[in-house]
Design a protein that fits this description.
11 strands; alpha/beta
Amino acid sequence: MLVRPGKRVRLPAEPTPGQLKGILRASAGGAFFDEASEDFGDSAYIHTYMSLGDAFNGVPLAPDALRMAMRKLDWQETFKKLARLAAILANRGGPFSKQLDAYAAALLAGHWTVHPVEGAIVDYVRKWRGRRAIFHEKVIYFLQALALIDGGTEGTSPSDAHLAFLGLAANDYVDDWFADDDRALEAGEDIVAAVADAARFNQQNDLLRTITRCAAILQNRPPRGSALSDSGIWDELERAAFGGSFREFFLSFVMPLVFQSRSEWGKTSAAGLVVNPALAKRCWSAKTTVAQDAAEEFLASLTLSRRDAKSEITRRSNGLPRAPTILLKKPLVDVEDELWAASPSAVQNQLHSGLWARLRRAAKAIGVEKDWFPAFGLMFESWCQQVAAWSASSASFGGSIHLPSSPGARDEIEDVVVYDDRAVVLFSIKATLVREDAAYGAEKRTATWDWYRKQLFRGRTRGDRPGWAWQLDQKIERLRQGEYEAVLSSGLDVFPVIVMYDHTAESAPLYDLIDRELAELALLQQPRVAPLALCSARTYEALMGMAAHGYRVSEVLREKAAPRWRRQRLETLIYEYAKMHRGADFRIPQMAAEFDRLADEARRRLFGSSLGDA
């Protein structure tokens, strides 16, 4: 994760107790740091990036000057170079890779030392090279958006050194908030917002898990309890969204494009050249059995023209682009009769939210939009239960699981329950996606905590379901009162976990805010109840994978609840376990087998043969 360097601040010489408390909270969350350190707060996996303003004591390149620099460049050549850079970033080792370091090297080797200002830039880059990055996913999207809306049509092509300079200049603006906060920030809330924003970028997902999860959730209609469980309505929804069945669409188009984005783009070809993240419009599917017109229609649905980009990408008051979320929705840009991908990550985002959005639009078109959200919740819940069942079938699984016979059945304790003779883990499964204005498109620092507070703590007003924390608290009260004695002892240690389909954006200050609110509302305060933990879908799958390989889920979460890990991400703890086992992926065997079946069927559909036929 890459974030802006901490600000240099003047602390009060004699702080009041309140000021001291705020300073300590912010410091623990990473608001300040020693300039010689590359770490940010509690996590060794958070780094800072370089910026031009940081080189000149907080004075950035003026917005008009940055826009003017882009106008002098050819927008098509600039976008292509940025797209190639994004592919290298995603598939060649990240922001500190040798390939990206070449851009810093180009800047240092260029003619930058004649003028004192240029010399200062060189000195700054030389100082931080290898410890702070210049390029990261978010700044590349920012520069791509700037090229689309301000780039010239007859300009020059930027050199590597020129791109590095633009990256330094853009880094001063990429994390700016566009709107004033509508209330006073709580202690640490600014860091919650910054980490939540940064955590959505520079992610390297396990494609085996991501592809298998996506297919398993969306290929079957929801279980009983939803209006969309009706086969006729579900078939109509699939036709409206995909022109046929989801599985055929997924295997014929989505999987091949995602595979190509990960396995080819940014890699080095046999000829020693970087493979461009580009597709030929009319022959992408030429060597397959897929109809060309269907392939072209699929690619067109993901394609952004420059004309449309200018209308979709809005500007800030200083003329620079706001969050270019359109590049995540339509990651292919029409450039000189080719389709260039903004980044492999943007293409792979179709697995997380792009296909979800297709189904939502289709549900609206056929008049069942209100049924889509609860239906997806049941579908995600069913997937998490399947993962738990796979894990529990392993001979190495420690403990037992309890799953309801159907959603909301009388035997339901929680969506997924894992227990042993000492403890019980209550997994509450939540498929709600974070709203765009609190995620990639967030404009206010208050948006992240406002969203979490609503989801966790809303009461029973106006017929709303109680918030997630209220729901868990009620389950624990029933446990303590002995209502689940047929399955669970009332005196077990309890580990409450919320599993989110979307990114959790965990951070130390977020956990602080959650803990404080829980204490004020007297929720989850019963004896022998661990602090609430957040968990993304991929982290949940990794945790269940650990269980299938012999780790007790309750013991991993007991370690997460201890002071060393309490305020850190569960995913980071699991990664530390993996490092101890020489990079073990903790995959569940059945999930890997399901992925192999998907890949084999995709090959049959595309080429008429499977790996077994070769």
